[in-house]
Amino acid sequence: MREGMVPIKKGLTGGFDKGWRGFLWMMKIIVPVSLLTSLLAWSGWMEELDFLLRPMMGMIGLPPMAALPLIIGMVGSIYGGIAAMVVLPFSPEQMTLMAIFLLMAHNMIQEGIVQANSGIHPLKATLFRIAAALITVMAVAPLLGSSAAAAPLQGGIAAEALPLIDVLKGWGLTTLRLSLSVFLIIMTILTLLEILKETGFIHPLVRILSPFLKLMGLDDRVGFLWMTAVIFGLTYGGAVIVEETRENSLTAEDLETLHLSIGINHSMVEDPLLFMVLGLSAFWLYVPRLITAILSVRLLRLYHRLSGPRG
């Protein structure tokens, strides 16, 4: 009995340690990014770019101000994108569209390097993720109603009309609430993941999810890698993905379909929960990108069959 508890105890210890270090790392992103965003909104500087950003953002049903969180999330991390998003006055529909985009296209530089080291050209992976995010958001925007594209920004008086001290107070309260939510989520998830890893339950989970892999259009041979990305994400699970790719003999098509799928559908546990804390619907955070991933992989396989060697 005691021996059986050793992996769980080890998982708890490792999970708490990784969770705390992960939380501190996220705070180094969330605090400065959210503060800078609040100050930019208060200064009125972002309005100067309204004429340039309105046509581009309008294509995906978002106001010009949405460009800042999206760019921060794409170049940096999803946590930076969320930090910028929560301190600006967006409607729930606008936040949902931004969440869908950020879930699919975030941390492009770091995750592109991981994908490059495990079997796919980083430019191809990056361009695909951005295109998939844009197409998915454009498809979802009409389903959320006209308010997603044209509703006036809600949530109180414009930041530039308030005294700076009030802006800083609002930023502090908003960031504190977000930080507490992130702490609870990251500690819980990383602890559970460490327990799963130490007890060896990851591989049985892959076998259980084999039918779902078929639905996604993926081969069983990439099941462990797919599960790693779905649970741990491309950043946390990067080392595992790179090592497993080197050790397993996978075809070029298997690697390409895997990377296109996990580029859209990675970190399916932690990242959506961060948005759900903001009151966004789980349906829109999961279903659109699952459909996009399934269609993308199946279209790619069809392309490979049609363009295969001709006798």
Entry keywords:
75% helix; globular; mainly alpha; 311 residues
Account of the 3D structure:
The longest helix is centred in the first third of the chain and has 42 residues, at 2-43. The chain is built from 16 helices and no strands. The chain has one domain. Helix content is 75%, strand content 0%. Mean pLDDT is 80; it is low at 146-160. The chain is mostly helical. It is globular.
Brief digest:
The protein has helices at residues 2-43, 50-58, 67-75, 78-86, 92-104, 108-116, 122-140, 147-150, 164-199, 202-208, 210-216, 223-236, 238-247, 252-264, 270-276, 282-306. It has 311 residues and is mainly alpha-helical.
Shape: globular
Number of helices: 16
Low-confidence stretches: 146-160
Radius of gyration from the alpha-carbon trace, in angstroms? 21 Å
Q: Let me know the largest β-sheet.
A: none
Q: Average the pLDDT over all residues and give the rounded result.
A: 80
The total of beta strands comes to 0
Content-based structural category: mainly alpha
Q: How many domain modules? A: 1
Could you spell the SSE succession in H and E letters? Answer: HHHHHHHHHHHHHHHH
How much strand? under 5%
Helix content: over 70%
How widely separated are the two ends? 62 Å
How would the blueprint of this fold be written?
Blueprint: H1 2-43, H2 50-58, H3 67-75, H4 78-86, H5 92-104, H6 108-116, H7 122-140, H8 147-150, H9 164-199, H10 202-208, H11 210-216, H12 223-236, H13 238-247, H14 252-264, H15 270-276, H16 282-306
Helix pairs in contact: 1-4, 1-9, 3-4, 4-5, 5-7, 5-16, 6-7, 7-14, 7-16, 10-12, 12-13, 12-14, 14-16
